[in-house]
Amino acid sequence: MVDFNNPLPLARHLDMTVAEASLAAAHIERACEEALTLQAAALCVPGAWVARARARLEEAPVKVCALISFPLGLMTADVKRYEIEAALDEGAQEFEVTANHALLLDGQERALVRELRDLVEAAEEHPLKVAIRPELLAPGDTTRAAHLCVEAEAACLALAPETLTGVNLVEEIRRLQEIYSGSLFFKAALPTANRGLVMDLLAAGAMRVGIRYSPS
């Protein structure tokens, strides 16, 4: 259970993510209860659990965000689009797609923009967040990724490292916010919950901060 004692203004910027392979219905129910208690911005779940989460959160301000191509991002564009369409039918209100890092690393920017535009279209005006792992990228690649998201008309770039070692999320968010404010919003997804870091990220300009929910 997330051990946060947050005031509502802080909690409304939180995305709770629940994505362990061992998830069962009871875990989703508890995650929904936690999201409701926190009054989080969104509960991010794999596609198989979108319908249950949406049914539980139907009357709540907490959005249901479908995780697409999670966690590697290496499905083809057609498969990602189908995931979005299926999750949309199940009631998803937001989408977070893991980017194909190979396209970015290989300099195939046009291919990545085409893919993202296709996914934005599939989301039917629902917010599409594009998640990248900054520790896999060279200096400057996060800026390129942000530029491509703007070009594709995605709503958000999410920095989602597997580890914080060597990654200064606060400075990255601040730098990107200074460049792209008004064109794109930013999310930082934390591998471990840290209230002080959440506050620093929000102060740097992040609109969402992702925290992991671990079922017990």
Q: Major sheet, described briefly?
A: 8 strands, parallel, barrel
**Oligomerization category of the chains in this entry:** single chain
Stretches with pLDDT under 50, minimum 5 residues: none
Q: What is the SS-derived class? A: alpha/beta
First-last Cα distance? 8 Å
DSSP helix count? 9
Strand content: 15-25%
Radius of gyration using CA atoms only: 16 Å
Helix content: 40-55%
Which sequence of strands runs across the widest sheet?
Answer: 1-2-3-4-5-6-7-8
Can you walk through the features of this model?
The chain is globular, with a radius of gyration of 16 Å. The longest helix is centred in the first third of the chain and has 14 residues, at 25-38. It is built from 9 helices and 8 strands. Helices cover 42% and strands 18% of the residues. An 8-stranded parallel barrel has the order 1-2-3-4-5-6-7-8, surrounded by 7 helices. The model has no long low-confidence stretch (mean pLDDT 92). The chain has helices at 8-11, 25-38, 50-56, 77-89, 101-105, 109-122, 141-152, 169-180, 195-204; strands spanning 14-17, 42-46, 63-68, 94-98, 128-132, 156-159, 185-189, 208-212. Helix 4 (77-89) packs parallel to helix 6 (109-122) and helix 8 runs parallel beside helix 9. It starts with 7 loop residues before the first helix and ends with a strand. The chain is an alpha/beta fold and 216 residues long.
